Structure formats: C-alpha cells, structure tokens
Amino acid sequence: MLNKHTVAKSLLLGSLLALTGSSALAAGKIAIDDTRWVSFGAGIRTSIASTEDGAPNGDRGTDFNLDNMRLYVSGQVTRDFKFYFGTDKMWGEYGVLDAIVQYEPGPAFNVWVGRMLTPADRIEMNGPFYGLTWGQYTVPLFPSDNDTSNGADGVAGTFGRDEGITIWGSQGKFQYAFGVFDGYSGDENQSDALLYATRLAYNFLNKESNPGYYTSSTYFGQAGDILTLAVSAQYQDDGYGTVTERGSFTGYAIDGLFEKPLEGGAVITVEGEYKSFDVDTDAAVPVFPMFDGDAFFVSAAYLMPGQGGMGRYQPYLRFTRNDPSAGDDSSLTEVGVNYVISGHNLKLNLNLTSGDANASGTKGNDTDTITFGMQFQI
After folding, report:
1. Is 97 within 8 Å of 159 (Cβ atoms)?
2. Do 375 and 44 meet the contact criterion of CB atoms below 8 Å apart?
3. Could you tell me which of 75, 66, 67, 64 has the C-alpha nearest to residue 41?
C-alpha cells in the first residue's frame, strides 16, 4: 500500500553530487539550487510464513515472501510545486505505484494530481509500512485496493491507488481529504461515472503529523498523547454488475486511534475500526468480487520500556470479524510482537494468526499461520 519515508542518507551520494555539481541540503537530499531539490529512498518488507495444511499434499506449508520492494523519488521544483514517484512489486513484476504532481502552498489547502492513494480508512492510508500489526489487511478493502487483476482494462485501482485528484489540508486539529478518481471504468460503467472519496479526521489531543493525508497506526510514543477519530466514505455509480444490470458502490468506515506514553518510556496503543459496504446491483455475479456487509477490528499494543539490546519489544493483539450480507461470517485473531529498532524504518515481527478471514472480507480456510517478518526503510 502507501509509503511515507525518510530519504536515503548517504548511499551513492558522493557520485550523485559529482554528476549534478550540487550540494546536499541534508542527509539524502540533493540541492540543485536554492529552491530545487531531489531525494531518493527505498523500502523492503519480507517474510517467512508457515501455514497449517498449507502444502498441496495437506502438510504444513512454508513460503518465503517478498511482500514489498519500493523505490521512490521526490523533489521540489518551486516552493509550492513538488513531485513524488514510487514503484513496488506488482503481480510478480515491478510497476508504477505512485506518480503525483503536488501543489502545496500551505497547511490549509493543497492539491495532488496523478496516481495516488484514494482517501480511505486508516489502515489503507498507513500503507504496509506504517501499520501497528503485520497483518492489518484482514477486513474488506475499498475498491481501489480490491482488484489486482494484473492491470486489465477497467480495474478499480491497485494497492489503494487510482488516477485522479485529491484536495487535502487541515484547520487546527481538523484534517480533511477529498478526491475524485477514475474508479471502475469497464464496460459496465456506461455513464463514465467517477469514484468520489473522502476522509475527515479530528485530533482531540495532539495533532497527528504525517506527509499529505497519510496516517500511521502507532508513533511509538514520539507524538505524545493521541486521540483521533475519523470517518471515510467512497461512492461510485455504475461501477458493478453487467452492461444491462448495472449498480453502484457505497462504503464508509469509522476508525479511531489512541496512544498514550507512560513513565519509563512505555507506550499503550489502541486502534479500532468499523466498516460498512453496500454493492447495489441486480447482477448475479459482480464484475469483480466486492464485499457487501459489515466488518470491524480492534488492536491493542504495549511498547515495553527500554531494555538491553538494539530495540524494544511491542507485543500486540488484534481481532477481526467480517459479516457479509450473503455468505458465511469470518474472523481472525493475530497475536504478535514487534521488535522496534528504529521506528517504522527498521523493525522485526513475529506473529501467529488463527482464523478464516482474508483481505477480501470473505471466508477462507480456517488455518493457523506463524509469520516472521522484517521491515526496512531508508
């Protein structure tokens, strides 16, 4: 999903400076002149998963996964105009994740145009690198993060992204984002209807600070006391069904985050969300499977006080339940621990999941999986 990154610190910086004849403004940021600059970064998430009955013959299966491999470039052309470009592993290949022209005159009003995250709930605005738990995608996802049909015509987006425009900003502790996107544009969308997406959030305590309208599900206590509630919604007409039996999609989510630093450096984090989707179509089978019904999850974590070694332990518990309008309910419990070495830039994770919920919100196989994951950003 999304990235928010620290730029590359020194890798190949000497040779880049020699080629451009410029000087560095800061670690990893290359100044072209007093106004223009460019920066580079990368992110990797990789994991090893052992799943009960996961092998073709019914034995326990083991998989080595490259979950994400992201390269990104950002820069500034004038004080108000910036750009961002990122790639990721898609369908076994590598492709364009984000490509955004960014007009950012001030905190209250900004405009992004290009391919970007559609405003949605916190877990989708986190991207995979800024979640509290390793497996945050076990509730239904909005259309822009639902279809990964290998770039076929008419898909509603991939990895939470779509082509469009987003207006975002903040007034005091209120934060907003509103976007219009292509959405699903297959033959069923005879009216060429657009996808409308919004996210509205209020920070009751400290104001969350992230790039653009992105989010995080933990700040490891570095942001102080956090209590934020948000509502997100998306709508597209003529986005589902068949050419003769078209329908619409309406979805909304309410999410909340509470984080409290304690004495000695310990931190309590609680996150939760309720989500409701409605696919209104008379077609027997929608063009691609969208969840219809309600879902929720709740997560709680405790970052332990400083101890010996490079990092700190953050045990957590997460529970997910999906209740579709048709079909069976599903649920999943995740028990895990993060070993936090350098915030979201370097951490290890070990978790056990048990249940039958998957990222589409439908019922899958009821299995137990042990996963060891590693995350790195620069």
Report:
1. yes
2. yes
3. 75
pLDDT tops 90 at residue 19: no
How open is the CA angle 88-129-256, to the nearest 5 degrees? 130
CATH 2.40.160.10 fits 13-377, yes or no: yes
Contacts of 125 (CB under 8 A, 6+ apart): 2, 117, 119, 199, 213, 214, 215
d(CA 97, CA 4): 13
Tell me the two tokens of residue 170. 């903040």
Question: Residue 270's CB: how many other CB atoms inside 10 A?
Answer: 15
User: Do the Cβ atoms of 106 and 94 come closer than 8 Å?
Assistant: no
Per-residue model confidence as pLDDT tens digits over 255-273: 999 999 998 899 999 999 9
CA atoms within 13 A on the CB side of 8: 19
Which among 246, 227, 232 is positioned nearest to 276, based on CA atoms? 232
Q: pLDDT tens for residues 48-79?
A: 999 988 888 888 899 999 999 999 999 999 99
Alpha-carbon distance of 309 to 106, in angstroms, equals 41
**What tokens were used for 256?**
């909340």
Q: Which amino acid is at 13?
A: L
The Cα–Cα gap between 348 and 46 comes to 10
376: exposed, middle or buried (Cβ count in 10 Å: 0-12, 13-18, 19+): middle
- DSSP three-state, residue 126: helix
- The structural domains of the chain, with segments of one domain joined by +, span 13-377
pTM of this prediction?
0.88
Residue 35: other Cβ atoms inside 10 A: 11
What radius of gyration, in Å, describes the C-alpha atoms of the chain? 21
Alpha helices in the chain (DSSP H): 13-20, 122-126
3-state secondary structure of 354: strand
